[in-house]
Amino acid sequence: MDMKERLQELAEAAGKRISESEGLEKLNEVRVAYLGKKGELTAILKSMKDVAPEERPKVGQLVNETRSKIEALLDESKQKLEEAAREEKMKQEVIDVTLPAKKAKIGHRHPNTIALEEVERIFIGMGYEVVEGPEVEYADYNFTKLNIPENHPARDEQDTFFINDSILLRSQTSPVQARTMEKGKLPIRMIAPGRVFRSDEVDATHSPSFHQIEGLVIDKNITFADLKGTLQEFAQELFGPETKTKFRPHHFPFTEPSAEVDVSCFKCGGKGCRFCKGSGWIEILGCGMVHPNVLSMCGIDPEEYTGFAFGVGLERIALLKYEIDDMRLLYENDIRFLKQF
């Protein structure tokens, strides 16, 4: 067989294999088999030494033409295979615009946050400022400066989380009030919201970690009437204009006189219902006139200045306002519950 017939047969065999290739990987195998360093066309080129010198130019031209023909067939087939692969991929990735879109889940404020912002809005509207303090506190600020001596039951290790003898996790936000009074910038009108810690068992109304909002007013000629008027205004803004307040005598070490405050049930209007347990009243906070000892220990003259303080549980407000019957729901992170607010 002469060289021309051999090259023609090679080109036909390559063309057949190219047409039968079903993928780019198979096509590349054909390219290597015929045009690679160890391919059949390369082998023919290596045998050129056996061709007569006068025939070599002609044979060389035939070899180049055969190479060009095979490369053209390979390129054409490659283009067709790539287009087919692209079309198949497009079919698999097609977007059905008639399908319902995925709904974006947008977060929102927690019930505690909503209640806190409402309380802050009410007191800022009455001229109060919002003050925050450390959650890890000195026992001196958490107890001593609040007229709670060392032998007081509140200092029991079973009731308070002590880190050492003098440092603890605050059991109330009252230390923020003591720190503010020590600065000596009078008059004072402030609320102190924040997280507090007590050694309580977890149940529907208790948690070892919860939030308080405590308020403090210090100025000249402040009376219990100012306290009653302030809390009446607060209750009506929070629970509605028809809300009434009732003060019951109580005892707190840092206030004298002290009182617990009830509001008329906003569900039944004071008639008595399941929500208020038939009494017509709901307890919401504790309050009183700042004890003279507290003023003295914080560097304020009790003969010249008086004041009142109050404290309310943030979770209690949220539970009442949104009629939630179990405090644990606020912390279980159940989206079915939280998305209702």
UniProtKB/TrEMBL annotation:
Entry GO terms, CC: cytoplasm
Listed GO MF terms? ATP binding; catalytic activity, acting on a protein; magnesium ion binding; phenylalanine-tRNA ligase activity; transferase activity; tRNA binding
One of its GO biological process terms is:
phenylalanyl-tRNA aminoacylation
Which keywords has UniProt assigned to this entry?
Aminoacyl-tRNA synthetase, ATP-binding, Coiled coil, Cytoplasm, Ligase, Magnesium, Metal-binding, Nucleotide-binding, Protein biosynthesis
What is its cofactor? Mg(2+)
Indicate the principal place this protein occupies in or around the cell.
cytoplasm
Instruction: Quote the subcellular location field of this record.
Output: Cytoplasm
On whether Coiled coil is a keyword of this UniProt record, the answer is: yes
The record places domain Aminoacyl-transfer RNA synthetases class-II family profile at: 119-332
Name the positions where Mg(2+) binds. 256
UniProt catalytic activity: tRNA(Phe) + L-phenylalanine + ATP = L-phenylalanyl-tRNA(Phe) + AMP + diphosphate + H(+)
Cofactor binding annotation: Binds 2 magnesium ions per tetramer.
Tell me how this protein assembles.
Tetramer of two alpha and two beta subunits.
Q: What is the protein name given in its UniProt record?
A: Phenylalanine--tRNA ligase alpha subunit
